[in-house]
Amino acid sequence: MPAGLRVLHAIPSISPLRGGPSVGVRNITEALRRRGIEVDVLTTDDDGPEQRLDVAAGTVERLNGQRVRYFPRQTARYGLSLPMLGWLGRHVHDYDLVHTHGMFSFVPLAAAWHARAAGVPYIMRPAGVLDSWGMKNKSAIVKRSSVRFLEGPLLRAAAAVHFMTDLERERAAHLGIGLRPVVVPLGFDFPAAPAQSVPDELQAGDKPVILYLSRLHPVKRVDLLLRAYASLPQREDVVLAIAGDGEASFVASLKALAGELGIGGAVRWLGFASGARKQHLLSAATVFVLPSASENFGIAVIEAMNAGTPVIVTEAAGIAQLVRTTGAGLVTDGSLDSLQAALARLLADAELRAVLGRAGRLAVERELSLDVFGARLESLYRSLLDPMSVRTPAGCRDGLHP
């Protein structure tokens, strides 16, 4: 087994506009750089739902000191990139290991297929798309067929299938595929609070702020949050801020619902937030809420915890167990009554909010640091490449070894 590892990571897009999986790969490249592991990222020129990067095929740029190689995305659906195939055929042998991110998309499947054909060990990270909600509610028939004929054989042949949480692993079990699962939570290295001033777009004054900051999509149940806010007895004295973007028609439907509930003028619709602006919103919030019906991990929840903001999540969030065990916030059952009660409780108890906020920040520092994550991931890689290893990598939970 080589002392210095060279790993290829394949993902359809690394645009921050694509949410958690893309953000995760950015963290992975930095974590592995710190461990001295050489990483190449294979991706497309996708820069969000309706945008493309202005890069030529095969263009190499740097991300956290690691190389990113871009190829053109020829179709919006499935992210087809035929020029990438030739490069994979010529170069997949150059790597000790291939690590893919995402499913039901061309890039991770092409990388896994080439790795299997070349005899290169590979890990597949489904990034939440094998959960029961996604399989039942989004192109269910197409996905079942795809799993049977495309993803299934690749998943079974993978050296490991990388899940971010125990909940994600449990949800994938319903497919009945013989996987080699390993759970390695993502790590983070958050920047210091921004020194520059940020415009006060919340316009909250001394009022408490309920913040939602994530992609706007039906699975996130923003409609539930709007209804819970509308039912709060103290609503007139509380600001609800919605930060995130999504399909224009869906965003319009949420705004229409707010109007029907009589809160159209009270909700702050802030659009996509990143960088110093995002950090400002997380720090300014009184309570952070992610009411998802299904959530693979919940990076935005971790960001709120790091900012010292108490969080409210549902049992359907992969991060819910950590929130519960560390005392970083409240976990609801996903119902309107449960969410309304959690909001009312936290808004009425400043001392409880302070306790939860401190616990959340400490949990991120101890459990989810980038250095801890990097050590776990390197240990996993080396255990897969060492045929004599039967030890579970430190900090990982898996089904790889007896």
Shape: globular
Class by alpha and beta content: alpha/beta
Order of helices and strands: EHEEEHEHEHHEHEEHEHEHEHEHEHHHE
What Rg is obtained from the alpha carbons, in whole angstroms?
Answer: 21 Å
Unreliable stretches (pLDDT < 50, length at least 5) are 390-394
Q: Write out the strand line-up for the largest beta sheet, numbering strands in chain order.
A: 3-4-2-1-5-6-7-8-15
> How large is the share of residues in beta strands?
15-25%
Number of domains: 2
CATH class of the largest domain: Alpha Beta
Compute the separation of the termini in Å.
Answer: 22 Å
Q: CATH fold name of the largest domain, please?
A: Rossmann fold
Give the helix proportion (percent range): 40-55%
| Record field, number of beta strands | 15
Helix count equals 14
Largest sheet: 9 strands, mixed
CATH architecture name of the largest domain: 3-Layer(aba) Sandwich
Output the CATH homologous superfamily of the largest domain: Glycogen Phosphorylase B
On the 0-100 scale, what is the average pLDDT? 88
Describe this structure in words.
- The chain has two domains: 214 residues, 3-Layer(aba) Sandwich (Rossmann fold); 159 residues, Rossmann fold (3-Layer(aba) Sandwich).
- Helix 1 packs across helix 14, helix 2 packs parallel to helix 3 and helix 10 crosses helix 13.
- It has 402 residues and is an alpha/beta fold.
- Helix content is 40%, strand content 17%.
